[in-house]
Amino acid sequence: MRPTGNDGPTLGELLEFAHRTAADPGVLARLPRRPGERSWISLPAPGGAEAWVIGWPPGAETGWHDHGGSRGAFATASGLLRESSIAVELPTEGWRVLELADGVDRRRELSTGRGRAFGPHHVHQVVNPSRTEHAVSVHVYYPPLPLMRRYTRDGRVLRLTRTEQTQEW
Ligand SMILES: [Fe+2]
């Protein structure tokens, strides 16, 4: 992947990396698969990015979170993931509770081979909605995640619950 100047990989390059890696059986075979448990391995990522392969047992979900100002992409390597996201750009700092307007919720299903990129203000949650099928996905972030903010959602109200300094998802 070619970094663009000093600004790191573009969204298109991050997404291309996620797709290419999600289609690489040699990479996916390294992921430990433990029934009922999440699993993950880190990957070397181009252009100074950070990448992970994540295994999702049935019903696993991230909860609402952002990526601390990093942009990124992910692609489903097997199974299906459902993403809920907020279609407006939210400030990353300076608030604890926000009331969202109507019509800003988005939902998309990412079946095997599908992926998406997202910008630095992206707030979402991702779930493996299957009751029976494990899912595997590839995630890449630039710059490497400095932190993640976690939120609870109560109807329209988004509430910051904590800031994590270490990579979890
Ligand atoms: Fe995320």
From TrEMBL:
<dbReference type="GO" id="GO:0008198">
    <property type="term" value="F:ferrous iron binding"/>
</dbReference>
<dbReference type="GO" id="GO:0016702">
    <property type="term" value="F:oxidoreductase activity, acting on single donors with incorporation of molecular oxygen, incorporation of two atoms of oxygen"/>
</dbReference>
<dbReference type="InterPro" id="IPR011051">
    <property type="entry name" value="RmlC_Cupin_sf"/>
</dbReference>
<keyword id="KW-0223">Dioxygenase</keyword>
<keyword id="KW-0479">Metal-binding</keyword>
<feature type="binding site">
    <location>
        <position position="124"/>
    </location>
    <ligand>
        <name>Fe cation</name>
    </ligand>
</feature>
<dbReference type="InterPro" id="IPR010300">
    <property type="entry name" value="CDO_1"/>
</dbReference>
<dbReference type="Pfam" id="PF05995">
    <property type="entry name" value="CDO_I"/>
</dbReference>
<feature type="binding site">
    <location>
        <position position="65"/>
    </location>
    <ligand>
        <name>Fe cation</name>
    </ligand>
</feature>
<dbReference type="InterPro" id="IPR014710">
    <property type="entry name" value="RmlC-like_jellyroll"/>
</dbReference>
<keyword id="KW-0560">Oxidoreductase</keyword>
<keyword id="KW-0408">Iron</keyword>
<protein>
    <submittedName>
        <fullName>Cysteine dioxygenase</fullName>
    </submittedName>
</protein>
<comment type="similarity">
    <text>Belongs to the cysteine dioxygenase family.</text>
</comment>
<feature type="binding site">
    <location>
        <position position="67"/>
    </location>
    <ligand>
        <name>Fe cation</name>
    </ligand>
</feature>
